[in-house]
Amino acid sequence: MKIPTDIEIATETTMLPIKNIAEKMELQEDSYELYGKYKAKINSHELKKMSNKKNGKLILVTAISPTPAGEGKTTTSVGLADGLAKIGKRAMLALREPSLGPVFGMKGGATGGGYAQVVPMEEINLHFTGDFHAIGVANNLLAALIDNHIHHGNILNIDSQKITWKRVVDMNDRQLRHIVSGLQGKVNGVTREDGYDITVASEIMAILCLSNNIVELKDKLRQIIIGYNSSGDPVTAGDLKAEGALTALLKEAINPNLVQTLNHTPALIHGGPFANIAHGCNSILATKLAMKYADFAITEAGFGSDLGAEKFIDIKCRMADIQPDAVVLVATIRALKMHGGVSKKELNKVNKDAILEGLPNLKQHLVTIKEVYGLPVVVALNKFETDTAEELELVKEYCLSNQTEVVLSEAWEKGADGSVALAESVVRLANQTNDFSYVYDLTDSIEDKLTKVVQKVYGGNGVTFSKKAYKELNELNRLGFSNYPICMAKTQFSFSDQVSLIGAPKDFDINIASLKISAGAGFIVALTGSVMTMPGLPKHPASEGIDVNEDGDITGLF
Amino acid sequence: MKIPTDIEIATETTMLPIKNIAEKMELQEDSYELYGKYKAKINSHELKKMSNKKNGKLILVTAISPTPAGEGKTTTSVGLADGLAKIGKRAMLALREPSLGPVFGMKGGATGGGYAQVVPMEEINLHFTGDFHAIGVANNLLAALIDNHIHHGNILNIDSQKITWKRVVDMNDRQLRHIVSGLQGKVNGVTREDGYDITVASEIMAILCLSNNIVELKDKLRQIIIGYNSSGDPVTAGDLKAEGALTALLKEAINPNLVQTLNHTPALIHGGPFANIAHGCNSILATKLAMKYADFAITEAGFGSDLGAEKFIDIKCRMADIQPDAVVLVATIRALKMHGGVSKKELNKVNKDAILEGLPNLKQHLVTIKEVYGLPVVVALNKFETDTAEELELVKEYCLSNQTEVVLSEAWEKGADGSVALAESVVRLANQTNDFSYVYDLTDSIEDKLTKVVQKVYGGNGVTFSKKAYKELNELNRLGFSNYPICMAKTQFSFSDQVSLIGAPKDFDINIASLKISAGAGFIVALTGSVMTMPGLPKHPASEGIDVNEDGDITGLF
């Protein structure tokens, strides 16, 4: 039997008009705006209106350390929401929006897969409701205002060699990583080194996701540091009188987007900050709204629990004043084999030894979630066709011997039906009392915050600083940013800062290469090694296979 | 009495839900999609469905040669549509979408003014329904695919010094006019000279506006020439297998946008190609749909009748197989004074001599419209507060002595009421038989086409070619493009190619500096002098005055 592709499954499913979904949620007609028949934007003011309403349970979906084999966090999240609905619970998703870069590159979209998808997948994966375009243009207006200010006399004394604000494009375009701009004479700007990031890496993306309302949004935009003046002091977006226009550009983008799963479970898809140089979670507004509308709000955080979940907790939950009630840790047989040292092309062979070698990675995540974050956790073993019963049994036994719930998740193949066991486990866990805790306090020194993350979450010894980072540390303290939370930018493939140290490495230090302030978003980015903020396209980009027929139907998206 | 600003008038007016407008137009529910409560997109397939329906009259609004004093074409167009509605005619507008560049720069939006506006003005002027973002990202995907192809081995042998395809951004950003990209080593692309245009200048914008349907759109995208290979032969978007993905990105953007005037007259606002290096009219689809839905479709073309109207007729009408039934030529006392040599700050003084000096400019436009295009014309004298009765009378007499209808247009101050006289004149003229004619035949040689435009429309002697242009002319003939129409890129301020030759110059040649093929859009761009395709921001950009309050209400847009 031919297995249908994601877009085939998605387009063969009958969606409900989003109006019907909104009615089911008891939304008033003036609380949302339609964007076509199957997308809507919920007004951000709704949150304030519902301030007295009790919050539903918040479920965080995270994963073991990612491998090239993939883990299926979004698919599991979507399946879980549908599974909860199937057992009679009011469930709602709060997920990230996909970036166009991966859609045309290699990774494909970010709307789940198989029978656990959010739809309309082709619209969500292309422009959706324009949020990323709004963020991109706001980012680039600020960039234009900076160079324009210098061009027209530079009253603020901006040092053109110390501009930290880059332009962005929602595209994998390596050609733009390093450019020289403002060439060919004074009338065409000021010649300087420059470069592009992908839009999801813009600080404005992080700001949008961390703002509880439009006033906070404008305030954060105002505080963006765009670079430094000739005395070394920060120059802000506010100094350029930019925050009003930027907010105007973002006034629709701040409203969370409502869509549905294949099973008609409501889903808010909103914001998608880069999980390395930003915190990698969907917007605070979407998560909070989901908690108001549903008894179970399902959200996810980028990469593994060491990166995404830590930042979810220490940055997003703290700024939003919310906390998760239970955690789902997604693992796959294939990923565990890779953590056990098996190469990608050998993954289809039964290999219990490799799984045993890889399980310490799972364990380190479990220990962090339970003992550091203080939260109940269930392992969702995301089933692939190639998994054998004995391999699955091995992982189950391991979890049980570690006093951890474990269920098989068959969301991809069976949708809601394949997620009932997970849903039941989640309901049970979320009703337990928990011991939620941040990893560090904001009043801790920057060094202490970093050390706590490394020791408590990564299982390492501590941190070392490059000369550059040490200088930046002193500078951040001088400028009064010592009370900001930390946004770790570390490889997702290892608990350490070395990609090759898979599994659960011990006895390592994390070297902080650089410390940067995102004063608008409100966190200090700690870079460990170099972080790629502009991907490239592969030799045969996915775009080559995408087509549209005369009726406007798209094929080749995955 | 304080005169309210455009945005004050716009936001104080009660709009009808766009659904009601659609119902009034007898649109089926599945013929359009809502984008919020006051915007909709009409499915491009509607045109095919109505192929047997009789077309309404097509009215072209154009103007005398623009001056810094402004002429008010959009305001007059909106007023005319409302005026037609007021006298009981089914009228509909087909206008261009504004670019974000001028909105944050100096010029402001492009939604009319005073009591003759299309609304919601702040949404139309900001992201609207995302068409320009879609065009920008399609443009930039193609750019990324080019450099990516070279990076991965360059099978097509693209000469990196002969890449003609530029990246775009919807922003006035002089800093990006000339850049060097692909710096810092092989892994980061191929170092080459590069540069950005503003999004409206993208060939994809022109393509979208010149496509009758989605199949034509894809076909035109496939034919885009992105540069030349090492043998000097063109390399196309089709060679990069890009047309499917580009079409996917544009599949919503091709659907015309429905909004309303302050008086609830339906308006299609769709596409906005740069009026110099492209043809400067809204989309064929919008214009044709307006002709199906209404008895009078009002559209406009960029700049004066020498540029916009000529390209409207020779490019757009020809490709769309439509023709206008009457022309409105907008003139103002202030602009006529400037053509008579008065500086901008002296415009408020009564100066009949200057007007008499400026009137030959008006006359040259009239002669072209009547004798070359063969169309009936009415002069709409767009009234400003500072105009005196004797000045207005002078222009009226001049028109009448030239056997031309003339009416006072008070659209800005009085909306529909101020446009009834114009509406009545237009109805009368549009019902006359006319002698419509293109300026040249497609089978004319490129030299002959250019010469005919210069002699018949500009009133000049003929054309001369730069050495470069002459070489390009031979190359275009060799490549088989000799049957394409011409898209003149000339200063809008003069009939000649010299900005300073205001009024109605005689005895001049037009020097063709360069000839470029836009093989996708389907025309040859004839550049006369240098054309700016990336504006800059002024010392105090309009963005500084834009703000948003906590309810999301925008102020400072104009």
From TrEMBL, chains A, B:
Its EC number is 6.3.4.3. InterPro entries: Formate_THF_ligase, Formate_THF_ligase_CS, P-loop_NTPase. The keyword ATP-binding applies. It comes from the Bacteria. Pathway: One-carbon metabolism; tetrahydrofolate interconversion. It catalyses: (6S)-5,6,7,8-tetrahydrofolate + formate + ATP = (6R)-10-formyltetrahydrofolate + ADP + phosphate. Keywords: ATP-binding, Ligase, Nucleotide-binding, One-carbon metabolism. Belongs to the formate--tetrahydrofolate ligase family. GO terms for molecular function: ATP binding; formate-tetrahydrofolate ligase activity. ATP binds at T67, P68, A69, G70, E71, G72, K73, T74. Pfam families: FTHFS. GO terms for biological process: tetrahydrofolate interconversion. The keyword Nucleotide-binding applies. This is Formate--tetrahydrofolate ligase.
